[in-house]
């Protein structure tokens, strides 16, 4: 058997001893001969890579996560994915959370913290999409030699259930608004009366609001397309009552930009209103349901919400028992020339009515 001159045993440990380009390299190799062999092989491969001009990731500069995210979009996503806008949207949230972090400083624990934070703001399905994007980003970072491992590889996604979204009725919506701190109330009213996303509301600017034509222009939407959102009288009054101290409507004087999160305030209001399980995103579903139940057209709703397809909009429409009963009862007038509801004793059927704009605003 050939003697392995590069491996030496001393004091219960194995050491490696070899020369590369005239330089002698000696170091601890392991507690077993197999461990020492593996250490020797890795060192030799590393030295050969250096000789060929391949720098090991752990010898390079720390790569900022935000910078690599931009490279990922430009060099990979835009070139290979039709859904690159979805990745760009996911990375906007990820970059905000991992601000100042490098690829190497992001570990599984920090990613789990991101999961927990986002779950309180958006649906589990949205969080799963963002986690999938993060995994792909790190896979590319490893492939391109920017880092050594993927900390998101073993992060589990949320299990999605078929449970219905929480749709508020008028009384619940008023209770939520009443229990909210003053600064949060206009944000809740806008969400309930426009169906806009939380991020879209917080990033609103005064130039985007057209009081003459009663619409709000959303330029940077999730779909990547600009859209106009009609304003109800309630939304107009809420916006007109807000002070103008910056181009941003919901301005944070400390950061000199718009408010980034209302999670704590929303959770406080939700708890006081006894609306367990309610998410901010459910306000968007509530708007869609109210819109359809009050005679709105689903095609128009799809444009208001900024969906790419009617199929997506259908997921947001969750008819309530009250709404379905009201719609069926209203059909009685078709066969009854007098306009009276046939065979509907008023004392036995609960009367349901649409939620009005002013009721929610007040």
Tell me about this structure.
The chain is mostly helical. The chain folds into 3 domains: 7-54; 65-143, Orthogonal Bundle (DNA polymerase, domain 1), CATH 1.10.150.130; 170-324, hpI Integrase, Chain A (Orthogonal Bundle), CATH 1.10.443.10. 47% of the residues lie in helices and 9% in strands. It is built from 16 helices and 8 strands. It has helices spanning 33-52, 65-80, 84-97, 108-119, 124-143, 170-179, 185-194, 198-202, 233-240, 263-272, 282-293, 298-305, 310-316, 321-330, 332-335, 357-361, and strands spanning 7-10, 13-20, 23-30, 209-210, 215-218, 227-230, 251-252, 257-258. The chain has a 3-stranded antiparallel β-sheet, with helices on one face. Strands 4-5-6 form a 3-stranded antiparallel β-sheet. Strand 2 (13-20) and strand 3 form a beta hairpin. The protein is elongated and about 95 Å long. The termini are far apart. The model is unreliable at 339-362 (pLDDT under 50).
Task: Indicate the topology.
Elements lengths: L6 E4 L2 E8 L2 E8 L2 H20 L12 H16 L3 H14 L10 H12 L4 H20 L26 H10 L5 H10 L3 H5 L6 E2 L4 E4 L8 E4 L2 H8 L10 E2 L4 E2 L4 H10 L9 H12 L4 H8 L4 H7 L4 H10 L1 H4 L21 H5 L1
Antiparallel strand pairs: 1-2, 2-3, 4-5, 5-6, 7-8
Write a short abstract of this structure.
With 362 residues, the protein is mainly alpha-helical.
Name a few traits of the molecule.
single chain, 362 residues, mainly alpha, DNA polymerase, domain 1, hpI Integrase, Chain A, 3 domains, 3-stranded antiparallel β-sheet, 8 strands
């Amino acid at each position: 058997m050939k003697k392995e001159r590069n491996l030496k045993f001393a004091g219960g440990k194995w050491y490696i001893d070899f020369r590369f380009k005239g330089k002698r390299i000696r170091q601890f190799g392991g507690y077993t001969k197999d461990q020492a062999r593996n250490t020797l092989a890795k060192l030799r491969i590393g030295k050969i890579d250096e000789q060929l001009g391949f720098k090991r990731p752990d010898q390079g500069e720390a790569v900022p996560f935000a910078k690599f995210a931009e490279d990922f979009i430009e060099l990979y996503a835009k070139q290979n994915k039709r859904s690159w806008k979805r990745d760009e949207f996911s990375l906007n949230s990820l970059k905000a959370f991992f601000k100042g972090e490098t690829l190497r400083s992001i570990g599984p624990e920090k990613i789990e913290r991101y999961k927990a934070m986002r779950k309180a703001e958006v649906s589990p399905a949205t969080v799963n999409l963002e986690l999938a994007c993060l995994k792909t980003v790190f896979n590319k970072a490893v492939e391109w030699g920017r880092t050594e491992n993927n900390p998101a590889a073993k992060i589990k996604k949320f299990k999605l259930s078929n449970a219905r979204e929480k749709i508020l009725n008028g009384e619940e919506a008023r209770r939520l608004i009443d229990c909210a701190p003053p600064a949060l109330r206009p944000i809740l009213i806008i969400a309930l009366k426009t169906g806009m996303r939380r991020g879209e509301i917080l990033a609103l600017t005064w130039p985007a609001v057209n009081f003459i034509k009663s619409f709000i222009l959303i330029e940077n939407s999730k779909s990547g397309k600009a859209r106009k959102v009609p304003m109800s009288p309630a939304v107009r009054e809420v916006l007109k009552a807000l002070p103008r101290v910056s181009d941003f409507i919901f301005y944070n004087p400390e950061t000199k930009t718009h408010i980034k999160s209302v999670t704590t305030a929303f959770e406080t209001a939700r708890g006081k209103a006894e609306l367990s399980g309610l998410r901010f995103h459910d306000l968007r579903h509530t708007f869609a349901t109210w819109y359809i139940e009050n005679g709105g057209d689903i095609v128009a709703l799809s444009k208001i919400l900024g969906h790419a397809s009617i199929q997506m909009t259908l997921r947001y429409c969750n008819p309530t028992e009250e709404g379905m009963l009201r719609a069926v009862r209203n059909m009685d007038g078709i066969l009854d020339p007098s306009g009276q509801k046939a065979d509907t004793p008023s004392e036995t059927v609960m009367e349901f009515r649409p939620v009005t704009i002013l009721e929610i605003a007040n």
